[in-house]
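[audit] Reproducing an earlier prediction to check determinism. Same input, same settings, fresh worker. If the tokens differ from the archived copy the diff job will pick it up downstream; this log only records the rerun itself.
[audit] input (437 residues):
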Amino acid sequence: MNLSKTRRLAMLLAVVAVLVLALAPASVAAIDRRSGERIVIDASETIPDDLLVAAATVIINGRVVGDVVAMAQTIEINGVIEGDLLAIGGGIVLNGTVTDDVRVAAAIVRLDSQARVGDALLGTGASIEMLPGSVMGGSLIFGGGQALLSGTVDGDVLFGGNSLLLRGVVGGDVEAAVDPTAAPTWVSQMRIEGIASPPAAPAGLTVDREARIGGDLTYTSSAPATIPAGVVAGQVRFTEEPRATPPQPTIADWLFNVARRFAGLFLLGLIFVWLTPRMLQRTVGELETRPVASLGWGVVSILAVILTFVIVVLITVVAAILLNVVKLSGLMGIIIAAGMILGLALVVLSILAVAYVVQIVVGFEAGRQILLRIRPSWVERPFAPLALGLLLLVVLTALPAVGWIISLVTVLLGLGALWMFGRDSLIRRPTPTPAPS
């Protein structure tokens, strides 16, 4: 990964971390909770407390005397928020006033001409756009696809992404890491209900003649940008990021990767044979006696894992919403944490099964079948079929043209055999064992 991509990734992770911390429950005197399909705060309405709202569409035309936490597909702020705005959604449009900080995570973020932010904006998303007339009293920190800044930012601008277009006024410094090789044209094709798609900014850094930067301009890119004279009051610092092309692997690299993968699988296979010999024997028996069924059940097992993960997520979300509705929000954190742990455990177990267990099972069976034909006496030594089968499997899956096909068949065969072993173990049915040599 090159330097600017690393910086952009670090910035994005930092932004997400701050957003998560910002959205954590706090001790407050009172919270006005609202939910539904469409939540509208009328212009004549004043909410004297903090506002927590979750809906498909949220429109705030009135006044909130406190902080606002909003989660929706579409969020519009046309009124006044006398505190912070913490928002997560598909599209967020600000055409009112937020007297303090704004923290957002959305595909589309737009500040219209009447938008006023008293302090800083911290966000991530595909696009952020400040139209002429919009004003930000603090700094703008954004990581994502593009930023089109035609308004006024009194503080600094820190950006990491594909494109940064400066047409407005920045009172402080500008620091950016951009990629001039790819214009985010896909941004203009995004569709969020109720929000116009943003225009696509040119790739890299673009500074308009009408822009004004009160401090320094520091940017990292693989090519220098054209900076009009008189636009930057301070210094312009450019750090070139060479376009690194990945080196072509050599035969020595290929052999080293094959040897390293074989050593790791063989060591784990020995542990597997030592700790779970009966499980290995029964799983290999399923694979030997029902190979076609193993392929079919392999596909079923992959679909079952995906469906189980989706069900866990849905149950977690529904349970959290129900607890909030019945005013048991104190249990929401426990339910969400339990759902995350269960989902993570499912993902980790699936990765371990695909990356290691199925390779060991299929490799063991492949080596066993070969030894039955050339050295039957070696079959009774577990390390022999394991070593031969894994070596053959590692070499074949590393081949450039057909390796992925062999890997896919291996995964399906191994998962299917594991599925049938697990199913038969649960219903206490005897499973086939390998034929005696």
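[audit] rerun output stored. Observation attached for the diff report: The helical segments are 3-22, 251-275, 277-289, 291-325, 332-374, 383-397, 403-426.
[audit] end
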